[in-house]
Write a structure and sequence with these properties.
The chain has 245 residues and is an all-alpha fold. Helices cover 81% and strands 0% of the residues. Helix 4 crosses helix 5 and helix 5 packs antiparallel against helix 9. It is rod-shaped. 15% of the residues are buried.
Length: 245
């Protein structure tokens, strides 16, 4: 009996210690679980931090390169803009110079319509000057000038032949007027072409046409009124200049 009592007392005395050991064991176990979970999170965070730092450094490096490249591109762009502005200015100056040259060439060519025909001047200077004009507006708006220059020699010959023919037709006692010859004059290609030019009466050949027209209008059957001598000589002198070509 005493042995049983002693055993119970021993167990009772040992119970708190056992309970404490159990609690310590449980607490110790719980602490191990918590620490284990925390370490995984810490490792994960560390990995994410390392990855973020790596990405940051990569982005920083890319940014630096971009800024450097952008700076170089910006410099190139500014240089290009400056050069473009310079080229545009030069282009404008050249275009203005070309316009002046075109007007000058056109005026040189057209001026030959206001002086007696001289073969070399018209064929070698005036016509090439007009053909050198590059301004399409001038070429289009003043195409008649070019046409008259090209036909200058042929027109003179045409008028001279007409005068010679008209003199023969009117050199008879039955001719009372020159109405028929006036109609023929007005139907001459040379007369029609010059009528297309606004200042045709101011040109040298236009004045000759008007003189011939006036002689025909004044003709009333009197052969002495056919004063074509001076005009014929002027026309022939012009044609003779072709010998110098």
């Amino acid at each position: 009996m005493l042995k049983h009592i002693m055993l119970l007392l021993a167990l009772a005395a040992a119970a708190p210690a056992l309970a404490q050991n159990k609690a310590d064991s449980t607490a110790h176990a719980d602490n191990e679980v918590e620490i284990k979970i925390g370490m995984r999170d810490l490792e994960k965070l560390k990995s994410e931090r390392d990855s973020a730092m790596a990405n940051y450094k990569a982005l920083l490096s890319q940014y630096s390169k971009t800024v450097k490249n952008d700076s170089a591109l910006a410099t190139q762009l500014q240089t290009a803009r400056t050069e473009c502005a310079t080229f545009k200015l030069k282009c404008d100056e050249l275009q203005q110079a070309q316009r002046k040259a075109n007007v000058c060439m056109f005026n040189i060519a057209s001026n030959f319509l206001y002086i007696p025909y001289e073969a070399y001047s018209v064929e070698k200077l005036a016509i090439p000057a007009f053909e050198a004009v590059t301004d399409k507006d001038i070429i289009t708006q003043h195409s008649v000038n070019y046409k008259l220059l090209k036909s200058y020699q042929a027109d003179i010959k045409q008028l001279l032949d007409f005068i010679t023919s008209a003199e023969k037709k009117l050199d008879n006692p039955f001719a009372k007027n020159a109405d028929e010859q006036l109609r023929k004059l007005h139907n001459l290609p040379a007369y029609i072409n010059y009528k297309q030019y606004s200042d045709w009466k101011g040109t040298w050949f236009g004045k000759r046409l008007c003189e011939v027209e006036a002689v025909l209008r004044n003709f009333k059957g009197d052969r002495s009124q056919l004063k074509f001598g001076t005009i014929k000589k002027e026309l022939q002198d012009c044609l003779d200049t072709t010998n110098d070509l």
